[in-house]
Protein 1
Amino acid sequence: MSSNLFIPKTCKHCGNAFTARTTVTKYCTSVCAGKAYKVRKRQEKIQSTLTIDMQEQKSEPTLTYHNTINNKDFLSVTDASKLIGVSRWTIQRMIQQGRLKAVSFGRKRIIARSQIENLFN
């Protein structure tokens, strides 16, 4: 069933004038409707990513991790590297050179916190 309405409108996507046959028509063609849909979905993805990033920044999990490192007396190579701010390979080299003493504990190497403090004294 066709409508007897002829409503002059402007396309929301391209801005061209067209004659709509219904009151809810927003776009001049299906091509403009498809392009507007893609733009809308892209904006939704961007917005959702921004809100997720803002939620992650509010929670600040890195501070809690550093606080747990500060309370430990014995550190793994990874924890020691994060505490000092160097790579794990740098810590491994320091152990091999004898500048740090580490104890093998299973498959891990454990470093006493006093060893790291002695580096800077």
Protein 2
Amino acid sequence: MTSNDVLKNLTEYNVWANWRVLKSFDRIGGELPDYAQLMFSHVLNAQAIWIARITGTKSPVTVLQRHTLEELHRLHEQTSPKLVELYANADEAELDRTIEYTNTQGKAYSTKVRDILTHAINHATYHRGQVARELRLAGHEPINSDYVTYVRIQYGQDLEI
């Protein structure tokens, strides 16, 4: 992992962190805390929506659509690596390309691809924190999905996976 490409690192971190949340959900099994399941569904839905905006396609999901654990796994596999791919395949012109879109409340905006990718990562991190809190409140030990933990693992300083 190179330190000179922050957005590349963050998109890759996002795949790892979302995978970690899914693994913690797998360990819980049965009934997931309702709000935790909704917020993680929202994380992946938002990724799908942003990807659709960048690629000029129709989103397969809505912003607060709730998913089963199996569906969450599938949506993660479809969206988290796709953010890495979109960044990896983008040149400076693509990263600076402005996307025109309408948000879920019907308001029109325009945002650069680079800012959308940065937002998608920050958005996911924020809501993973909410998921962790809900798991703890329900009596489950939340998984560590901190960026620094990811970095430590990448550099072989921590073998926790």
Protein 3
Amino acid sequence: MAIIRQVNQGSVQLLSGLVGLLQDVVHHGASVGFLAPLEQAEANRYWQGVLADLGRGLVLWVAEQDGIVVGAIQLALCGRANGMHRADVQKLFVHSLSRGIGISSQLLYALEAFAKQQRRSLLVLDTEAGSLAEKIYQHWNWQRVGEIPGYAASPDGKLISTCYYYKQVALEDD
């Protein structure tokens, strides 16, 4: 079982592990906003930006096994007055060598528990249609809304469909 922890702003000691994680998922076909081959410098810039934004409506969790980063997930809290009840799930990553052992479920569990604490009753996300990630969200009772064909490019540059999901999270006093 992995150790899941929320990351604080300035956790630069995780940067190398996060960069390696991102490169691994992209090089294994995950459509997460990057094309392959993903250079270390580009992955480094991405994670430096994420780490700088923590605490400004962005929350990050990492999964570690034996001190190695093997997964991550982000939650962007809506800061608009009419959206204080919702948040966007972003970038669920699990290293290719650590898949199938429940890490994505552990990360989603931590994220949903935090969302409840923050009184976020509606979570939304998008993912590649037909992907393993889509199966994971369905397993966690996310509701599929629809699909947009040719929405994004896969790491090899091929246009793929993206589907949208939501989940209503029951708050304690509801």
Protein 4
Amino acid sequence: MLFVFAPPSYAESALHNVRGFLPDLRFTLVGPGAKTFTQDDFKGKTVLMFFGYASCPDICPTTMAQLSQVMETLGEEAAKVRILFVSVDPHRDTPEILQAYVEAFDSHAIGLTGTEKQVADVARRYRVAYQIEKPSKDDPGNYEVAHSRGVYVFDGQGRARLLAADTESVEVLSEGVKRLLAQG
């Protein structure tokens, strides 16, 4: 008996079309150089947005490495794409710490943070759940942050288009981004 294994189709992937289900790109956060960034700074760029924190032990570095691989597969088209890493740990993640963290993965990535309220507002807008664990009395700077996972993809007009599981393959995510870039 001969078995033929084919890669999963787009329909079987965890890449979901969210047009009309999630709000368009809108935020006011702080990034490199303590500059205030809004969605207007990314007009004309396809945006891959991921929520996490710089001292995350597993999910965030794995996802950032994956997004970096997606950027590599895009070649010259990567110049039309930005990775936005939004911190859910505004207490430890300064703009400088975040930018150093994301640049270790990709030069097209921008780390964003803000006040507790700014971060909470953006997270709520995209239905991102997170909880900062209570630090120990011995080491108040050592704590974890539980957070939901997913990569939000916005087109060049800032419209929410795709939502990918952080476990989605580089190939499927790359194809989704390429389709958006081809649509303009």
